[in-house]
Amino acid sequence: RKEVEQDPGPFNVPEGATVAFNCTYSNSASQSFFWYRQDCRKEPKLLMSVYSSGNEDGRFTAQLNRASQYISLLIRDSKLSDSATYLCVVSNTDKLIFGTGTRLQVFP
Amino acid sequence: NAGVTQTPKFRILKIGQSMTLQCTQDMNHNYMYWYRQDPGMGLKLIYYSVGAGITDKGEVPNGYNVSRSTTEDFPLRLELAAPSQTSVYFCASSIAGEYNEQFFGPGTRLTVL
Questions:
Q1: Sheet of A19-25: strands edge to edge?
Q2: Residue A95 to residue B90, Cβ atoms within 8 A
Q3: Residue in A31, A37, A86, A96 to test binding to B, most B beta-carbons within 10 Å
Q4: Contacts of B90 in chain A (CB under 8 A)
Q5: Averaged pLDDT for residues A5-33
Q6: What is the C-alpha separation between B68 and B59, in angstroms, rounded?
Q7: In degrees to the nearest 10, what's the CA dihedral of A78, A81, A85, A88?
Q8: What is the pLDDT of residue A43?
Q9: How far apart are CA A66 and CA B63, in angstroms?
Q10: B98: how many CB neighbours lie within 10 A of its CB?
Q11: Closest CA to A70 of A50, A84, A44, A85
Q12: HEC per residue, B19-70
């Protein structure tokens, strides 16, 4: 079983839609969780950290379910500029384990 | 601040050649990492360092070597390049380990022919 698993997509959604991504992780001892965004042929950049209580940043909401070992990302009112690959990231001791990413394509 | 810089941006190597990928950060971060990303795949950790003079293997270290003589620099050495090492290489740094955001350089696109 992979340490971090994501649906690769692509998710094709119209502008203004709400879209949700899920991610599961295998290491129950993981302490930190993140969503990174990676644009085509660019480096990954932090989108948001994920906290146990859930957290929101504008149109983006992240949730963590430790019991079921999954993380979610909800994007509301999708914009064309949200088109990218979203990487689920989970900690393992000194390191971060990156999922393979979920590709989102927002169309007009 | 320039953040994390990597050179070169692109490189084509012949099988058996060697090269060093350079990585420098100016944020005084203790932790530095090297990843490779194959097309359509996730990031795989090659080597990492928790401070000057300390390095450790990641998931895919074979065929690579690193050194960390200063806080700022973390070069990655490829010895005897093979086609399987064709990939995009990203260097990253963070203040500490798993609890902190990693900042990435722009990447080096390497092709081995």
A1: A4-6, A19-25, A70-75, A60-65, A55-57
A2: no
A3: A96
A4: 43-44
A5: 94
A6: 19
A7: -60
A8: 96
A9: 37
A10: 21
A11: A50
A12: EEEEEEECCCCCEEEEEEECCCCCEEEEEEEEECCEEEECCCCCCEEECCCC
Lowest mean pLDDT among A53-57, A58-62, B54-58, B88-92: A53-57
Residues 6+ away with beta carbon under 8 Å from B102: A46, A96, B31, B33, B92, B93, B94
B41 touches A: beta carbon within 8 Å: yes
**Which amino acid, residue B45?**
L
pLDDT confidence bin for B98, thresholds 50/70/90: low
The rounded distance, in Å, linking the Cα atoms of A39 and A69 is 27
Residue B58 confidence (pLDDT) above 80: yes
Q: What's the CA gap between B64 and B85, in Å, rounded?
A: 10
H or E element at residue B99: none
Question: What are the backbone dihedrals phi and psi of residue B108, each rounded to the nearest 5 degrees, phi first?
Answer: -120, 125
3-state secondary structure of A51: coil
> Across the interface, which of A34, A43, A94 has its CB nearest the CB of B104?
A43
Across residues B73-99, what is the average pLDDT? 92
Compute the distance between CA of residue A4 and CA of residue A26 in angstroms, rounded to an integer. 7
